[in-house]
Design a protein that fits this description.
86 residues, mainly beta, 5-stranded antiparallel β-sheet, 7 strands, 55% strand
Protein backbone atom coordinates (compact mmCIF):
# COMPACT_ATOMS: atom_id res chain seq x y z
CA UNK A 1 0.00 0.00 0.00
CA UNK A 2 1.36 3.42 -0.98
CA UNK A 3 1.70 5.95 1.80
CA UNK A 4 -0.22 9.19 1.36
CA UNK A 5 1.86 12.39 1.50
CA UNK A 6 1.66 16.07 0.58
CA UNK A 7 0.73 16.82 -3.08
CA UNK A 8 -0.71 13.32 -3.66
CA UNK A 9 -3.98 12.91 -5.48
CA UNK A 10 -6.45 10.94 -3.35
CA UNK A 11 -10.02 9.69 -3.49
CA UNK A 12 -12.41 8.32 -0.89
CA UNK A 13 -12.43 4.60 -0.07
CA UNK A 14 -16.23 4.62 0.02
CA UNK A 15 -18.66 7.07 -1.57
CA UNK A 16 -20.37 8.79 0.04
CA UNK A 17 -18.46 8.93 3.33
CA UNK A 18 -19.80 10.64 6.42
CA UNK A 19 -17.25 12.25 8.73
CA UNK A 20 -17.62 14.92 11.40
CA UNK A 21 -21.33 15.36 10.54
CA UNK A 22 -20.45 16.12 6.91
CA UNK A 23 -21.17 14.16 3.76
CA UNK A 24 -18.03 13.68 1.67
CA UNK A 25 -18.82 12.75 -1.93
CA UNK A 26 -15.98 14.18 -4.02
CA UNK A 27 -14.19 12.02 -6.55
CA UNK A 28 -10.64 13.43 -6.47
CA UNK A 29 -8.67 15.69 -4.12
CA UNK A 30 -5.12 16.85 -3.45
CA UNK A 31 -3.33 16.57 -0.10
CA UNK A 32 -2.34 20.04 1.14
CA UNK A 33 -0.79 19.06 4.48
CA UNK A 34 0.09 15.84 6.17
CA UNK A 35 0.14 13.27 7.30
CA UNK A 36 0.19 14.53 10.87
CA UNK A 37 -1.14 13.28 14.20
CA UNK A 38 -4.37 14.69 15.59
CA UNK A 39 -6.88 13.80 18.28
CA UNK A 40 -10.19 12.50 16.91
CA UNK A 41 -13.28 12.92 19.09
CA UNK A 42 -15.20 9.64 19.08
CA UNK A 43 -18.09 10.37 21.45
CA UNK A 44 -19.29 12.65 24.19
CA UNK A 45 -21.60 11.09 26.71
CA UNK A 46 -23.39 13.16 29.35
CA UNK A 47 -21.65 13.07 32.73
CA UNK A 48 -18.55 11.38 31.20
CA UNK A 49 -15.26 12.52 29.78
CA UNK A 50 -15.09 12.78 25.98
CA UNK A 51 -13.59 9.75 24.23
CA UNK A 52 -10.76 10.58 21.82
CA UNK A 53 -8.01 8.71 20.04
CA UNK A 54 -4.85 9.68 18.20
CA UNK A 55 -4.87 9.18 14.44
CA UNK A 56 -2.89 10.13 11.33
CA UNK A 57 -4.81 12.75 9.36
CA UNK A 58 -4.26 15.10 6.44
CA UNK A 59 -5.80 18.23 4.94
CA UNK A 60 -7.33 17.75 1.48
CA UNK A 61 -8.65 20.20 -1.11
CA UNK A 62 -11.50 18.76 -3.17
CA UNK A 63 -14.46 20.30 -5.01
CA UNK A 64 -13.10 23.78 -4.24
CA UNK A 65 -13.17 23.24 -0.45
CA UNK A 66 -10.50 22.43 2.13
CA UNK A 67 -11.26 19.48 4.40
CA UNK A 68 -9.04 19.60 7.50
CA UNK A 69 -8.08 16.61 9.60
CA UNK A 70 -9.38 13.76 7.43
CA UNK A 71 -8.19 10.39 8.77
CA UNK A 72 -5.96 8.47 6.37
CA UNK A 73 -8.27 5.46 6.82
CA UNK A 74 -10.88 7.28 4.70
CA UNK A 75 -8.52 7.93 1.77
CA UNK A 76 -6.83 6.01 -1.04
CA UNK A 77 -3.91 7.34 -3.02
CA UNK A 78 -4.75 7.68 -6.73
CA UNK A 79 -2.45 5.53 -8.83
CA UNK A 80 -0.70 6.67 -12.00
CA UNK A 81 -1.89 4.80 -15.10
CA UNK A 82 0.50 2.07 -16.25
CA UNK A 83 2.90 3.16 -18.94
CA UNK A 84 3.40 6.75 -17.75
CA UNK A 85 6.90 7.92 -16.92
CA UNK A 86 7.59 8.55 -13.25
Amino acid sequence: MARIKKNDLVHLKEMPTYYDDKKLDWSLGIVLKGPYEDNILVSTMPNNNPVTFLSLVCDVMASGKVFKGLPLELLVRAQKPLGEAS
